[in-house]
Amino acid sequence: MEQNESSQGELESTLKDHANKLVDSLEHGNFAEAIQVIYELNQVRDRGLYQEVGKLTRELHNAIVNFQIDIHGKHAQEMSQINDATHRLNYVVEMTEKAANRTMDLVELSAPLVNGLSDEALQLREEWARFMRREINADGFRDLAKKVDSFLGRVDQDSSQLSSYLNDILLAQDFQDLTGQVIKRVTALVTEVESNLVKLVMMASHVDRFAGIEHDQAEIKAEAEQQKDSSRGEGPQMHADKRDDVVSGQVDVDDLLSSLGF
Amino acid sequence: MKILIVDDFSTMRRIIKNLLRDLGFTNTSEADDGTTALPMLQSGSFDFLVTDWNMPGMTGIDLLRAVRADERLKSLPVLMVTAEAKRDQIIEAAQAGVNGYVVKPFTAQVLKEKIDKIFERVNG
Known about the structure:
The complex is a heterodimer of chains A (262) and B (124). Chain A is mainly α and 262 residues long. Helix content of chain A is 80%, strand content 0%. Chain B has a single domain, classed as Rossmann fold (3-Layer(aba) Sandwich). Chain B has helices at 10-22, 34-43, 60-69, 87-96, 108-123, and strands at residues 3-6, 28-31, 48-51, 78-82, 100-103. Chain B has a five-stranded parallel beta sheet, sandwiched between helices. In chain B, helix 1 links the parallel strand 1 (3-6) and strand 2 (28-31). The relative contact order of chain B is 0.16. The mean pLDDT of chain B is 93. The chains are: A mainly alpha (262), B alpha/beta (124).
């Protein structure tokens, strides 16, 4: 970086020096010297440009090495960390999907057990109430006693089954630990890639400066805007509670819709 | 009551299907985006559409517009259940003629409330 600044300083001071010399020579009608000055100016600019392109190339090479892509290898694409990150994120998608399905399977297995117990309890309660009101004869009572006995057996069996389902639901959440680790690693990689790219962009901007290239910022911005299309959807919003253009929950949605006459 | 659930994630379809079953709606079908949903709507006699917004192929908002533009489907009640939370998007959905809008993550209670409200209005 320091080297960059010094070479830019050199460019600027040479430019100033030579500009004065050029005006001087021209005013004195010394065209040969003027041409010489222009030639020297060109040389300084070219040298700077070559230096910056050289640096950019080296930096690009370093960046590629940093990305650990073997550009000469047969499996260059499979070897890249980005590719690895893609695999890792797919793994997260698979793990979370599997956990969600496993949890829902267990909930679907549990629900009929709970409903069955609750239905039978309700039925027994009605019969028990009739017994308490002395509306049941001896035969009826024997029948009721059998039902109570079988119900107690069922409660014992089904509740231990339910408890094992609940345990399995708990265990199905173990993906969080694994996916959390994977996501943290991928986040670190993205940060690293970004900082390498920023370095490259800075290098490239030095080249632009020596070469006198100007980019149309408005056009770049317009292009980026165009790529955003709200009807495609954006997925979940982050920091919704700190932003005005985003609702922070169902209450906000309902307020907004009712303000629109819903 | 025949309901079509449209979401690109099978787990979300399953959650909504389970919640609807708890609410007494057992006749449900599923589609994974607007492109597959639209022909199903056009050929099957669905009474209600629950759709996500962000899906590959045809999005939920485009599906909603297609439904409203279809002579036979235009009065079909549509509930959007989505993670899209920008005010502009909710306004866009309202203008496109959505009947209800639920943001993810949501609760069973919220889903029930919105469905009840929609049918109250449709029947009333």
